[in-house]
Design goal:
This protein has 15 helices and 2 strands. By secondary structure, it is mainly α. The chain has a two-stranded parallel ribbon with strand order 1-2. Helix 7 crosses helix 15.
């Protein structure tokens, strides 16, 4: 695997030392933990219920009498997939949900029940994305196949001229690809580049573990409803597809608004694999917030509208991000550094669409 080194701190790059000191002072003065609180626990119950209660109603045949209710429950499960992914699993796999490793592993492992694989997530998201944000070839969040061009350093094809139109459908479809084939592709790639070895797991064990999770997932989410939901099998399959289209679109629209924006710089390392900026400043230059005043948005998507704070402090629970954003923004201004933020979700969506159009045409 390619090793890229960020610039050392000093001068303007001492921003990170300053903002860390201010954040630590905030928690010390407020005398509160950096992990989750009662708000997080209540949210966990709500999000898990949003997925598993509809599933229970489907698999027991309660929804069979009315097809509008049957499909409506699958749609609600799609919303639950996004809610669990952003508000429960995400913090847990960053070890920011609890001080108890068992709790973090257990709730982070909920991803395995949603069709994903938590080991892959920790490598792709925690290590690659958070370390090498927007670096082509290293940040796998930019890898969306030949149909989408997420970086100005990717090869451009004629079809990309229209990606700002069809990307929204692909975002949903990519979630289906994720739960079927992507995890296998990734785990083999991580074996080849040595990252599995660093996680102290062999390819054979990882593939066995992954396959068992996939069998469990498709058994409960497809086979059991087909057997017991008291509807034709194709209704279950369509419900499954609809669930993932909704969940995938929601997750993409949350995560892509943070980095594939016109304010992002998408830098490349020098020939010596060195970056011009320190890691913290690189995060500021390639990350954006949105909807900072929306409590509902922040509650549902696990504070990921505060992506700047999340990237600088991934081990702090998202319930604290609104307060931290004041500190981070003020410190960035003191160092004459950008603090990119879109006022609301719709404006952020439009800006993301504009960036897709720009990447597709130039």
């Amino acid at each position: 695997m390619q090793i890229v080194k960020f610039a050392s701190k000093g001068g303007q790059d001492s921003f990170y030392d300053t903002v860390k000191a201010k954040v630590n002072e905030y928690f010390s003065h407020a005398d509160i933990p950096k992990h989750g609180n009662i708000t997080m626990y209540v949210k966990t119950v709500v999000m898990l219920s949003m997925y598993f209660v509809p599933y229970f109603l489907i698999v027991t045949g309660v929804a069979a009498a009315h097809m509008w209710l049957f499909y409506g429950l699958w749609m609600l499960m799609g919303v639950g997939v996004a809610g669990i992914g952003t508000s429960v699993m995400h913090d847990s796999n960053h070890d920011s949900y609890s001080t108890n490793p068992f709790v973090n592993n257990m709730l982070g492992g909920v991803l395995n029940l949603l069709g994903g694989y938590s080991r892959n997530w920790k490598i792709q998201h925690n290590i690659l994305h958070h370390t090498y944000t927007n670096l082509d070839g290293l940040d796998e969040d930019l890898e969306a196949g030949i149909l989408l061009r997420m970086s100005p350093h990717k090869k451009r094809y004629w079809i990309h001229r229209y990606q700002h139109i069809y990307a929204w459908l692909l975002y949903g479809i990519m979630n289906i690809y994720w739960v079927t084939a992507k995890d296998y592709k990734n785990i083999i790639g991580y074996h080849k580049n040595g990252m599995l070895k660093k996680q102290k797991i062999t390819l054979r064990r990882a593939l066995t573990e992954l396959s068992l999770y996939k069998v469990l997932y498709f058994t409960y989410v497809l086979v059991l409803p087909i057997l017991f939901a008291d509807v034709a099998w194709y209704h279950v399959v369509w419900g499954f597809v609809i669930m993932h289209l909704i969940g995938g679109l929601m997750l993409a629209c949350i995560f892509q608004l943070a980095h594939v924006m016109e304010t992002s710089e998408f830098p490349m390392p020098t020939d010596e694999n060195k970056m011009m900026n320190s890691w913290a400043i690189h995060q500021l230059l390639n990350t954006a917030n949105f909807s900072p005043k929306s409590r509902i948005m922040s509650w549902f998507i696990g504070g990921l509208n505060y992506q700047i704070e999340h990237h600088l402090f991934p081990h702090i629970c998202h319930v604290h991000y609104p307060k931290l954003s004041v500190i981070v923004k003020q410190t960035a201004q003191e160092y004459n550094l950008p603090y990119n933020v879109q006022p609301n979700f719709v404006k952020a969506l439009i800006e993301h669409g504009t960036m897709l159009k720009r990447l597709g045409r130039s």
